[in-house]
């Protein structure tokens, strides 16, 4: 199979067709229509074998994952996902692998009403780059720079499961099969909080998705908003899988600093706190308040049962 046969077999004519796409796969560029009074939100993410995923990850899970992590960025901006471009670098063409991989991609794209409109295929080490585009009403995008003194800090769901899945494999930890299965599912098939992001639009003061670890991603909000924060480690939500660890310090390290969770971290004023909780509950999201923004020049204070707790190492960063 050669390049254009690959494109025709696994991408052309597959997936949904949005009305706002005038020209999709098959030309030098795609042509789309952005609605009036809206802005285009664009994000790009690259996943590399051995860095972002294990070589033996199920291909369907990988196809899901590469789309999900990009949709999570759009969710953090309050954007509605619309279009995707895929850059796919393959060491060779394995028809069975490609079938499962593209099934995973098309399944999640269709679920969120997103059309794959173009991209590129090349030969080389397994690398997938996704450029996701979304739509957000003018002036309504969520950013990292709006947190203010007194705002409450929330997360949309449990943290640390992806870290548990990765480290259990790397370190050979003995974990009950049901907990390991659940942790692996969270890592393989993250659920971007797309609906929650749109609910937060116009209500939350700042937002970011948790990809590099709670504390690392919170630090971006603090820096760009010019504020500090107090976080209560004992209030950070964790799953039964993570709670099965008998090492409290390790459990907190995974929940606070590991990353790959793709939950949303956001801030909301005291006036909007109860309203926002009620709105998110309508979408099956139960946000958890884990701390508060304070005006102390960017300093982050971590407490555990109201006692000072040393900050764990910061989350993942390339070239560190």
Contiguous helical run count: 10
Q: What Rg do the Cα atoms give? A: 20 Å
User: From the helix content, strand content and strand pairing, which structural class follows?
Assistant: alpha+beta
Biggest β-sheet: count, sense, barrel?
A: 7 strands, mixed
What's the CATH C level of the largest domain?
Alpha Beta
> Which overall shape is indicated by the principal axes computed on the Cα atoms?
globular
Topology order in helix (H) and strand (E) letters:
HEEEHEHEEEHHHEHEHHEHEEE
The strands making up the biggest β-sheet line up spatially as: 8-10-7-11-9-12-13
Task: Give a nutshell description of this structure.
The chain is α+β, with helices and mostly antiparallel strands. The protein folds into 2 domains: 3-137, PurM-like, N-terminal domain (60s Ribosomal Protein L30, Chain: A, 2-Layer Sandwich), CATH 3.30.1330.10; 152-308, PurM-like C-terminal domain (Phosphoribosyl-aminoimidazole Synthetase, Chain A, domain 2, Alpha-Beta Complex), CATH 3.90.650.10. It has 10 helices and 13 strands.
């Amino acid at each position: 199979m050669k390049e254009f046969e690959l494109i025709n077999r696994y991408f052309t004519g597959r997936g949904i067709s949005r009305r706002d796409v005038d020209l999709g796969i098959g030309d030098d560029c795609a042509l789309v229509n952005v609605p009036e009074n809206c802005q285009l939100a664009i994000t790009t993410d690259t996943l590399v074998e051995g860095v972002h995923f294990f070589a033996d990850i199920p291909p369907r899970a990988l196809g899901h994952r590469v789309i999900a992590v990009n949709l999570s960025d759009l969710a953090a901006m309050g954007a509605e996902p619309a279009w995707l471009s895929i850059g796919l670098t393959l060491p060779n063409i394995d028809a069975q692998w490609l079938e499962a991989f593209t099934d995973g991609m098309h399944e999640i794209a269709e679920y969120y009403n997103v059309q794959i409109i173009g991209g590129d295929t090349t030969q080389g080490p397994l690398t997938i780059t996704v450029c996701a585009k979304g739509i957000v009403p003018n002036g309504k995008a969520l950013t990292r720079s709006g947190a203010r003194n007194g705002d409450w800090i929330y997360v949309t769901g449990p943290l640390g499961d992806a870290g548990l899945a990765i480290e259990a494999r790397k370190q050979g930890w003995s974990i009950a099969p049901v907990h390991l299965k659940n942790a692996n599912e969270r890592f393989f098939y993250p659920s971007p909080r797309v609906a929650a992001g749109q609910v937060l639009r116009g209500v939350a003061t700042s937002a970011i998705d948790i990809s590099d670890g709670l504390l690392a991603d919170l630090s971006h909000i603090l820096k760009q908003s010019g504020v500090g924060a107090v976080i209560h480690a004992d209030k950070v939500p964790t799953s039964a899988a993570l709670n099965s660890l008998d090492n409290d310090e390790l459990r907190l390290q995974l929940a606070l600093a590991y990353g790959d969770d793709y939950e949303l971290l956001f801030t909301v004023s005291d006036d909007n706190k109860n309203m926002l909780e009620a709105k998110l509950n309508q979408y099956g999201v139960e946000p958890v308040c884990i701390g508060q923004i304070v005006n102390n020049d960017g300093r982050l204070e971590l407490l555990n049962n109201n006692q000072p707790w040393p900050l764990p190492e910061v989350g993942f960063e390339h070239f560190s």
